[in-house]
Amino acid sequence: MIHSQPDFTDADWFTSSFTDGNGTQCVEVAVVRGWVGVRDTKQHGAGPILAFTPTAWEAFLLGVHADEFTS
After folding, report:
1. Which of 8, 12, 13, 31 has the fewest other C-beta atoms within 10 Å?
2. What pTM did the predictor assign?
3. β 14-15/50-52 pair status
4. Number of domains in the chain
5. In a domain, 29, yes or no
6. 3-class secondary-structure state, position 39
7. Euclidean distance between CA atoms 25 and 41, whole angstroms
8. In a domain, 48, yes or no
């Protein structure tokens, strides 16, 4: 399946439930047609956006829940 380029211009962003309470590790997530975007809250919308397909996003979340990314 080929996806078009994501357009997060009018996306509704929400703070991830994995964000820490002191604001040092904050990310926001938005879902638009066929894409999931992740950005750094501290950039106030001006920074880059990582774009995932829904399948890749689900695999990433499964890895997070399985602690695959801890050192």
Report:
1. 12
2. 0.78
3. unpaired
4. 1
5. yes
6. strand
7. 8
8. yes
* SS3 state of residue 65: helix
CA distance 5 to 16: 23
Q: Residue 39 belongs to what domain range?
A: 14-65
Question: Where do we find the tokens 């975007």?
Answer: 37
- Whether residue 1 is contained in a domain is answered as no
Distance CA 50, CA 12 (A): 15
Rounded alpha-carbon distances, angstroms, from residue 7 to 3, 10, 20, 36, 41 = 11, 8, 27, 10, 18
Per-position pLDDT tens, the chain of length 71: 555 789 999 999 998 776 666 666 788 999 998 899 999 988 888 899 999 999 999 999 999 889 998 87
